[in-house]
Every structure is written in C-alpha cells, then in structure tokens.
Design brief:
The chain is α+β, with helices and mostly antiparallel strands. Helices cover 42% and strands 18% of the residues. It has three domains: 64 residues, no CATH class; 163 residues, no CATH class; 121 residues, no CATH class. The chain contains twelve helices and 15 strands. A hairpin with a 2-residue loop joins strand 3 and strand 4. The longest helix is centred in the middle third of the chain and has 34 residues.
C-alpha cells in the first residue's frame, strides 16, 4: 500500500473501490477484449454494483482494492505506520499515557479483585472476611512500596476537568468517513485523502476510549489518592506479587497475563520410602488459552515431561476450562499445586518419570540430586 501511494500513477475510484490502470500490452488487450465481449459477465458477484474492468476515456482500469476494507484493516496491514500516526495524534492532545487501561481491562480486574483475595489474607486470624475492592487496594498499598511519583500522578488522575476539555475539543473536530468521489485521482490526491481518513479513524477510536475513561475517572474522583496511585503503579508495571500470589503481563498478547502462586519446598518419597526435597517454584495459569496449570521456572518433577521452563503439569483426569474466569483460575492453580505436592504415588510410580531408578531402559529425568 505504501508503494502504491508513493507512485506517480493515476487511479480510478468507482463505488468505493480503487481501480488500477491496465498496462498497454497485447496479451492483456486480448484478454480484456474477451472479457468485454457481449454475453461475458464482468461484474463481481459479491458487489454487483462494481465491475471488474472499467473503460474510462479510452483507458481500461481493473478493480484492485476495497477502500473500506483497507481503512478497517490498516492497523494490521501497516502496523508500523498506524502506530506512528496514532502516537502523533496522542502526543498532539497529550494523551500518550494510557493510565486508564487498567480500569478498562476486565481480565486484570478479575485477577486483582476476585482471584487474589482467595490466595491472600488481610488478617492472620482464623476468620476469612470477604474483602471489598477498597480493602484489596489498601492491602496492596500496605504490602508494596509504591514509588512517590504515582501518588503525584494520582492527583492529576482524579481531576477530570482536563479530560473533559480534551474530549470537547475532539468532539468539535470529530470527522466522519467520507469516501473519495468517483473519477480519476492523482497519487497525491489519494494519499492526502487516505491520511485524513486514517486520522479520522484514529480520532473516532480514541474518542470512544476517552469517553469510557472519563466515566471511570468520574467514579474514582472521590476515591482515596492512594487507591488511584496503586492502580497507576499496576498499570505501569503490569506485574505484582503479594504473599506468594502474583501476576505478570505477557508481552506476546495484549491484555494477557500469567497468574501464579508460589509453592515452597516440599518432600516426595519414592518406592523405597526415600525422601526427595523439591525446590520452590511458581505454578501458573495463562489468561490466554490454553487454561492449564504449568510451572514457570526451569523445573523437573515426575509430572513434567522435561527439565525446562513453562511446562504443563501432567494431570490424568484434568479437564481444562474453555474460558478465563476467577473460579476457573482458582481451580486450575489449586489443582496444579496439589498435583505437584500430593499427586505422585510412590507405589504406582505414576507420571512421566519415577523418583527411583528402574530397570526399564527408557531415557528419563534423574532425581538423585534431590535425595535427602
């Protein structure tokens, strides 16, 4: 697309499609004449109003690109250019920091406000009181040393007047997508129109995001400054750990996280009742499929096929969930932790490997270095 817009050819626009000029070649000319002869259909069944070949001022043009499709998918077609144009737009309106994403991220809210309270206790007493959202944010602030800069930013975060002003400015400049008129267009004309259309698309998309952000900020305008500071800290770092429970943002997928629970050292016994001390590790589940428990560190265990990181835990009757919910995440973590600590049966030697060496000549993982 970039090469097309930087060329010096003329385009024909007809019915929201871009037509490219056909080369003056005898073979192409014969093929065109065959297509245009009486009784030969040249219309696109999917778009009966747009023809495959159009003759305009004694020149033939062939249908090439859908204008609507290019605009809708430009973020994928040319991610680099779209990212730069979006950055320019956000910089212009001083919106480069997406501090509201954490409040719009349902997955992260599920982790913090529903999964974490199950594994982290505010009080050491026997009674487990259900924590409210404010209690959870207080707990995070108590457990984690949040840098001072987030408390300063929280003051701005809670003031919504600036955001209202920005939204009003965007509303006044809001554009609607209007395809270019039918007819011949020079490259620079199509390029200028295309850049304006991309700008309008970005503006509309950011306007919707900021409208949602304003609604959420209005809800938090009366909240404690330390709560806003806590949320800003989590949004920036994308990770947190309290009392062995934590989560970390996955770089490969936007809005996806690893949710984990640490397990301390534990002892397993082999067929001969000899003890093996296994090191601590983190059992995790991804918020992006598959929803199976795995060990984050490089680790070996009878229920792990190899000695490496990121391995799924082998559980014979485990049925993975089809969606990420708080209940499913808790169940997956609990079953993974239980499998490592209590799932190995020394008599049956279940799993991929046996703790004690057997006479079966199959390559296996050795656990002699864990012997106590």
């Amino acid at each position: 697309m970039r090469q097309l817009l930087n060329s010096d050819m003329e385009f024909l626009v007809e019915s929201d499609f871009i037509y490219l000029p056909l080369l003056l070649d005898p073979a192409i000319e014969n093929e065109v004449q065959n297509l245009l002869r009486p009784g030969k259909p040249v219309e696109n069944p999917g778009h009966p109003e747009s023809k495959t070949i159009i003759t305009h001022k004694d020149r033939q043009f062939v249908k090439a690109l859908s204008i609507h499709s290019i605009l809708e998918n430009y973020e994928v077609i040319n991610a680099y250019d779209y990212k730069n144009r979006r950055k320019e737009f956000l910089t212009k309106y001083q919106l480069t920091r997406e501090v509201d994403d954490i409040l719009l991220d349902d997955t992260l809210k599920t982790i913090i406000f529903q999964v974490m309270p199950y594994f982290v206790r505010k009080n050491r007493g026997l009674q487990r009181k259900k924590l409210q959202d404010e209690d959870i944010l207080d707990l995070i602030a108590e457990k984690i040393d949040i840098p001072e800069k987030y408390y300063k930013e929280a003051q701005t975060f809670r003031h919504v007047e600036h955001l209202k002003t920005v939204l009003t400015g965007l509303e006044n400049k809001k554009q609607t997508f209007k395809p270019p008129g039918n007819g011949l267009l020079a490259t620079h004309q199509l390029r200028d129109w295309f850049h304006e259309a991309i700008h309008a698309k970005i503006l509309a998309k950011e306007h919707d995001r900021l409208t949602k952000a304003l609604q959420i900020r209005l809800q938090f305008s009366q909240a404690k400054p330390e709560h806003a500071a806590t949320l800003l800290y989590i949004a920036d770092t994308g990770s947190m750990e309290i009392d062995g429970f934590g989560f970390a943002r996955k770089n490969a997928y936007k809005g996806a996280y690893f949710v984990y629970k640490r397990i301390g050292e534990y002892v397993l016994k082999d067929y001969y009742a000899r003890s093996y001390l296994f090191p601590a590790c983190r059992v995790a589940v991804s918020t992006y499929t598959p929803f199976r428990p795995f060990v984050m560190e490089k680790y070996k265990h009878p229920f792990l096929l190899r000695h490496k990181s990121g391995q799924d835990i082998c559980m014979k009757h485990f049925a993975p969930s089809s969606e990420f919910t708080a209940e499913n995440a808790i169940r997956v973590l609990e079953e993974g932790l239980t499998a490592l600590r209590y799932g190995y049966n020394a008599r049956r030697r279940n799993g991929y490997h046996s703790l004690d060496r057997t006479w079966v000549h199959i390559p296996t993982i050795d656990f002699e270095d864990y012997r106590m």
